[in-house]
Amino acid sequence: MATEKKAFVLRISPEMLKELEQWAQEEFRSTNGQIEYVLSDALKKRRKSLRQTPNRNQEAEN
Predict the structure, then answer these.
(1) Cβ-proximal residues to 33 (8 Å cutoff; 6+ apart), any chain
(2) Domain boundary assignment for the chain
(3) What's the rounded Cα separation, in Å, for the pair 52 and 3?
């Protein structure tokens, strides 16, 4: 299944980039692949967290 990907510029400190490059190498990924993996994992955790917490709008109304 082919998915279309959108390119964009990412501004990142040299120190953070170096650490991401090392992490990617340890996990046999490209730097871009590692960034995608980390972002994907963070989004999955966020979605799970949002499903487990009550609707904030309902809390504000009560």
Answers:
(1) 24
(2) 19-53
(3) 29
Read off the pLDDT of residues 1-58 as tens digits, 9 standing for 90 and up.
568 989 999 999 999 999 999 999 999 999 999 999 999 999 999 999 999 987 665 5
> What is the H or E stretch that residue 56 is in?
helix 56-61
pLDDT of amino acid 57: 58
User: Which residues, 6+ apart, have CB-to-CB distance to 38 below 8 Å?
Assistant: 20
34 within 8 A of 20, measured Cβ to Cβ: yes
The number of beta carbons lying within 10 Å of the beta carbon of residue 34 is 19
Q: What is the DSSP string of 12-49?
A: --HHHHHHHHHHHHHTT--HHHHHHHHHHHHHHHHHHH
